[in-house]
Specification:
Layout: E1 12-14, E2 24-27, H1 33-45, E3 50-53, E4 64-67, H2 71-82, E5 91-96, H3 101-112, E6 118-122, E7 125-128, E8 131-133, H4 142-154, E9 159-163, H5 166-170, E10 181-184, H6 192-195, H7 198-210, E11 217-221, H8 227-231, E12 237-242, E13 249-256, E14 261-267, E15 270-276, H9 281-296, H10 301-304, E16 319-323, E17 326-331, H11 336-349, E18 355-359, H12 369-380, E19 383-386, H13 396-404, E20 411-414, H14 418-427, E21 434-438, E22 445-448, E23 451-454, H15 458-470
Parallel strand pairs: 1-2, 2-3, 3-4, 5-9, 5-10, 6-9, 10-11, 11-12, 12-13, 17-21, 18-19, 18-21, 19-20
Antiparallel strand pairs: 6-7, 7-8, 13-14, 14-15, 16-17, 22-23
Length: 471
């Protein structure tokens, strides 16, 4: 292990030579000697004075070099030591699954904040107290996560819920984080562009539970068929939640309304009435995982449940906006399972009007789901407007035509500019129509070509267009 006493002068930790600043400690994770030299030279030119490496490099005077057998292992050990094992000093909750991660972490933070100072890390960035910051990645690299936790701890945060993506788990970005609770929401088709097979995707999710300590708690969805395999090698205590299958935290007699939901929570054969302003059946499942988490962390159910009646809305998740009698629903849904759930909900709340859908599909991502998204949307929609959604180096029109392959007997327009597509949906709508704008939610960027460009967010686009129609 690197001697910390010799490295008190470093300003930060870097594993990407492009992100090195003056006095960074650079861990070179290159796979061979040639690339090691390239990365090390680049890191030094950007200000690094301390280099950790495995393969031989040409050395420069004035630079401190530390050769180790395994750079990644040294990086992990050093990070935890450098940040004083901060993940052990607060209650840390990891949430994984295809859908629901942001909702669950946001609810843990907002409800947990009624009892202790709470924060979250995930798709919508870093949030605690009144502070919000962009993190660029849903699950940051280990040194960044530990820096965020240190910042939180400094501001008296005692509970942090963080999203743990499959890519991050596979890349070991959460290595040796001291999770007290891990939550599994569900597993369905996504990220196969990265994982290649569904089996690999599942195994990445499983890492979170395989690495839990014995006194941690695994909270898992009893309704998901992958749950038994997911937890079979976990040392943690396992608690289940469910709607369709009996579970430790079970919801029965569910009543879904346009603006609220009621159900009976059954825990240890005791029935508790629950009322919440959250809507849609999938949010009952999300809420059960949050209830189970807070209860397992020691909070009293009788004190938690009343707080569910009026929970803070989550940006980009089932955001309802009225535009002159047109009901607009903005949601982050971008997977087949997410589409199924959002359209099932939309079908229950729509009036006598039509459903108009606006969405696209991300470039350089899972292409197989594109016609599937089109097929699901066409089952429920009267009009579909296909548009951009982080097309990256693909053409928007090409992605749209791949989606269109799955669309059957539904009027379909292609408008490449997302803002104009949303505007068109409002223009062609009538009173009592339901407009679904899917895929981006509250995200404030669009990946176009090789650049990430600013985007006002789908929610703000709707409000801006609403103002224009009011004027």
């Amino acid at each position: 292990m690197l001697d910390l006493s010799k490295l008190q002068h470093i300003s930060d930790i870097a594993i990407d030579s492009r992100k090195v600043s003056n006095n960074s400690l650079f861990f070179c994770l290159a796979p061979n000697k040639e690339i090691t030299q390239q990365y090390v030279d680049h890191a030094i030119s950007n200000g690094a004075h301390d280099i950790v490496y495995q393969f031989e490099v040409s050395q420069v005077n004035g630079i401190n070099y530390y050769q180790v057998d395994n750079v990644f292992d040294s990086y992990v050990a050093f990070c935890h030591s450098y940040f004083n094992n901060v993940s052990e000093k607060l209650r840390l909750v990891g949430v994984t699954g295809t859908n629901g991660k942001t909702t669950i972490t946001s609810l843990i933070k907002s409800i947990g904040s009624h009892f202790i100072n709470s924060g979250q890390i995930g798709t919508n960035g870093l949030a605690y107290n009144q502070i919000e910051k962009d993190t660029s990645l849903t699950t940051p690299f280990l040194h960044d996560t530990l820096a965020y936790l240190t910042e939180m701890k400094k501001h008296k945060v005692q509970l942090c819920a963080m999203e743990t993506s499959s890519e991050a788990l596979h890349q070991q970005r959460t290595k040796c984080l001291d999770f007290d609770v891990a939550i599994f929401s569900n597993l369905s088709h996504d990220h196969l562009n990265y994982h290649k097979t569904f089996e690999n995707y599942f195994l990445a999710k499983k890492i979170l539970f395989d690495e839990l300590k014995g006194n941690a708690v695994a909270i898992v969805n009893q309704d998901d068929p992958y749950t038994p395999q997911l937890i079979k090698d976990s040392k943690a205590k396992v608690m289940t939640y469910g709607i369709n299958e009996k579970a430790d935290y079970f919801a029965q007699n569910i009543v879904l309304k346009p603006t609220s939901t009621t159900f009976e929570l059954v825990v240890n054969n005791v029935i508790y009435p629950v009322e919440t302003n959250l809507v849609a059946l999938f949010n009952v499942s999300n809420l059960l995982s949050v209830i189970a988490c807070l209860h397992q962390l020691g909070f009293n159910l009788e004190e938690v449940l009343p707080l569910l009646k009026d929970v803070k809305s989550i940006d980009g998740r089932l955001n309802h906006i009225d535009v002159n009698g047109r009901h607009v629903l903005v949601d982050y849904a971008h997977t087949p399972d997410g589409f199924e759930k959002i359209y099932e909900y939309a079908n229950t709340i729509k009036k006598e009007g039509r459903i108009i859908s606006v969405f696209g599909s991300a470039g350089k991502r899972d292409k197989d789901k594109r016609p599937v998204l089109g097929e699901i949307a066409s089952q429920y929609s009267d009009v579909i407007i296909l548009t951009e959604e982080d097309n990256r180096d693909e053409e928007v029109i090409d992605i749209a035509h791949e989606i269109k392959r799955g669309i059957k007997n539904t009027k379909t327009l292609i408008i490449e500019d997302r803002y104009l597509a949303i505007k068109k949906s409002v223009e062609i709508s009538k009173v009592n129509d339901l407009i679904l704008i899917l895929g981006k939610g509250a995200e404030t960027f669009l990946d176009r070509g090789t650049k990430r460009e600013n985007w006002i967010s789908d929610v703000e686009a709707v409000f801006e267009i609403k103002k224009q129609t009011d004027d």
